[in-house]
Amino acid sequence: MNNEKDYTMVSRKGSAPPAATRQTPPPDDKGPSSADRERAFLRHVRRLVQAQEHDFLAVIPQEMADLCQQELMELGIPDTRVSEAGVEFSGRLTVCMQVNLWSRTASRVLCRLPHFRVGVVGELFHRTAAIPWEYWLNARVPLLVQAHALRSRVDHEGLIGETVQRAVQQRFHDRGFSVPAAWTSPRQDHEDIDNRWVQRLLVRLENNRCVISLDTTGRHLHQRGYRVQHGGTPMRETLAAAILGRAGWRGDRPLVDGLCGAGTLAIEAVLLARRIPPGIGREFLFEQWPGHQPKTWDYLRRTARDAMFSRSPVAIVAIDQDRRAVRIARENAARAGVSDDIRWDTVDFLDFRPEALDLRPGLVVLDPPYGVRTQQDTDLAGFYRLLGAHLREAFRGWQVAVAAPTPELARSLGFRRKRWWHLPHGGIPLNVCFATL
Fold first, then answer.
1. Which helix (H) or strand (E) holds 73?
2. 401/403 Cα distance (integer angstroms)
3. Is the distance from CB of 117 to CB of 208 less than 8 angstroms?
């Protein structure tokens, strides 16, 4: 879509937002009534925000981008494109809602506003202040501006962030609205600030071309809301879902999580098998926007709930020899509403055999604790050799996916035919070894 658009003079002073956003300008005895101003405001919101197609970005590491792109294609989103930052796509805000609701692998979803050229700081201020922010943002949500500059005349990232923030606040002030505060941490309670939310504005200035992106998600998408407790450093939900996707597991064959820890892999497997959207139990930042469409959002969630399976169609087993870990995993699964879909067992995985539960071949996933995640001096190579020997002997015909911090440890598994997947995980390099035994 054409991204060259000038926002100058697109709005009129005196418009008012819906009462829910608390952005109503002061009353004017000589001007239109409050109801007239609200209707005018809603017309602008529909025209500039709701009715327009926008550019979006699903933020995700390059190593997982193809999985995210496949998710978007399955949602019926055409013309997706993988870029350095993630997966690019276009559509109305409804499409943004769907991706936030359904993506199992993305980190967050950004809405990219039309780009513009910038040569000096004053130009950055005036071009930013011309954007109709009052129709996009909720003044009660504090702003956090993050800037990145590359090969541009204006290259001081701190100055860029400050300039954009002042311009946004000036726009609200000049239009007679309450001015959004700058986010600080920790933030003291204030009746005019919603402390649960932070509105991130990401500014990228490259080759004198400025793109401002609005966060639509809020909390990171891996925060599904069910994992309140964990032991050690658990795997992120988005990574767990990506491993299942990379293994080609679609909820069509049994799954055994042999070192379940906080239960993330098993829980994500149930969500996938039952067709439960990962975002069904949480809130999103776009719900705070003046342009949010509650009826559309309710319809999308209701339709998703109607399509869910009542139970997992395949057996999903979670094992850990640590009773506390199993207890925590069960509590997390209960918060996700899927505890009854998982067969729990407190046993050493090296003593477990799938025929004991009459399981046909499926997928074994293992995320052993290691290195800085445990702070323990253990014979990891020896442990991986034991895992490999047990898998080869007890799980013939099964597919396996085993996480390891280094290729050397993964090679200790002793699999003859295998494929590797290298990716980052919270600053720790991760290697996932896939094999069919």
1. helix 65-74
2. 7
3. yes
Would you mind telling me the total number of residues written for the chain in this entry?
437
Quickly list DSSP for 119-151.
SSHHHHHHHHHTS-GGGT--TTSPEEEEEEEES
May I ask the CATH class of domain 19-215?
Answer: alpha beta
Q: Would the pTM count as exceeding 0.85?
A: yes
Contact between 251 and 274 (Cβ < 8 Å): yes
Pair of tokens at residue 129: 């202040």
Amino acid at 215: D
- Band of residue 201 on the pLDDT scale cut at 50, 70, 90: very high
Domain ranges of the chain: 19-215, 237-274+309-436
Cα gap 423→61, rounded to integer Å:
8
Q: What is the pLDDT of residues 351-404, one digit of tens each?
A: 999 999 999 999 999 999 864 334 444 688 999 999 999 999 999 999 999 999
CB crowding 186-203: b at 16 or more within 10 Å, else e:
eeeeeeebeeebbbbbbb
**Fold topology of 237-274+309-436:** Rossmann fold (3.40.50)
**Burial grade of 184 (CB within 10 A; 0-12, 13-18, 19 or more):** exposed
